Amino acid sequence: MTRLGLVLPALLLATTLGPATAAAQPVFLQGADSTTITTVLPPRAQGSRCCSGCAGNDACPDCACWATAAGMLFAYWDDHGHAGAGPWEQLLAGGGAADLDAYRATTQRLFDLYGGDSCDGSSVGLWVWGFCAADRELFERFTSSLGYSFYFEDSDFVYWEEDVASDLNTWKPVYYGYYPEGGGNHVVLLVGHEAAGRAMWLYNTWDYAAHVKGFDEAWNHCVVNTEPGGTDCSTGACCDGTFFSPPTQVCEPDAAEEFGCPWGTACDSDVGVRRRDRHCSGESETCGGALGEWKAWERAELCGPAEACSWTAANCTAVADCSCECSSGPCCDGCRLLRADHVCDDTPVEELRCSSDACGAAIQRREGLRHCSGTWDGCGDDFIAWGEWSDERACPALSYCTDDGDGPECRECTGGCRDGRCVPCEPECRFKQCGPDGCGGSCGSCPAGMRCSGAGLCVTPGVAGGPGCAVGRPSCGSPVAVLLALAVFVARRRRRRG
Hints:
By secondary structure, the protein is α+β, with helices and mostly antiparallel strands. It has three domains: 10-225, Cathepsin B, Chain A; 234-323, no CATH class; 341-427, no CATH class. It has seven helices and 22 strands. The strands form seven sheets. Strands 1, 2, 3, 4, 5, 6 and 7 form a seven-stranded antiparallel sheet that branches. Strands 13, 14, 15 and 16 form a four-stranded antiparallel sheet that branches. The longest helix is centred in the last third of the chain and has 19 residues, at 479-497.
């Protein structure tokens, strides 16, 4: 038996160990039982077009048993690995174990990475799983494509205590391949076991049921021990020694500053300064995330009675005339300009945006209040204190959010979604002169006096069955009408010859 070493930080081991369970009792993932295990991890069916007798289709169109079982494996760790922190939450991009679209996108990615072709083209990506090393290498390649280093341990022959019982006792699902009676090979996911009877509860990818199968060493094939290992990082301003720090983590205090005149530009007005911190990105150990909100203004320079803050110079400038700087206006007290933090209009201003361009993204909304500028007596849109963005509504799973200038809206992904992104729609106008192009656009319009037919062609009304045909007569474009017209033509020719 070949076993590859699996190095796991102490944190990983501590967080995955389940409670001690009596040997005679069945053990299921996350402490579930035979009736609740499907709520911990939904079972998925193969339903491939390469399997004409299989009902349903949870995985990708060409996916067979191995990709279906692997998808459930990654779905489990996405939901139950360290509370969804760090790399774990990307194992099913854009969703979790219950999200069918995310599951299909993940299985499609696994299938594509293995280089499998459709069932009509090649069997390489479907059935050749004679060595567990191939499974492990695929898993490592998949997780590496997400930007992380994961490690998996494989065995070319299965031992009950070492490969099955020990993993399930610590709430680790087991990716299990075996030779069924009657020939062939098959891959399933083990979700529970009972030690005394050496029985395994497995999700058979040919249907939705959880089954019990006695452990028979004569039919064993291979197992991949399936706890992802590895880490995001080891050092760095945005690394906790294991994972990337979240975007809420400040990595550089006071990374940016701005000087100005928040208390106006009248005589004896002081120069102010405000600062903001830089945050981690959540995807790197370096301090390269976004800047946070501006902090409150602080006095940077105190101006004298004959001085005033200069907004352009950002310092105290001598002033010869200290008379009133304004007389009226929403940002004037009758003589002095009001400070920049003064709300001059308590009617909220609204702004909408798309949270991202991914499938299922949300339309977000925020509100703000107009403030004085400190340099002008009017109240305009240049100084608005905005609140936090919040989701107004989410687009459907097979839609995306876009803003063409009239505000964000959800549009259907007519080409479907792949890897969380909308597949571009291909307009179809090859045989059309007008009408819709199938992607929300148009194939053109018809000249005056013509109309667009259902086939996307410009036609003249009254011709070939158009509205000009006489009522009660055969349709102008019908075979009967053509034969009648031909008969009349032939009769006239004969009369002329006679």
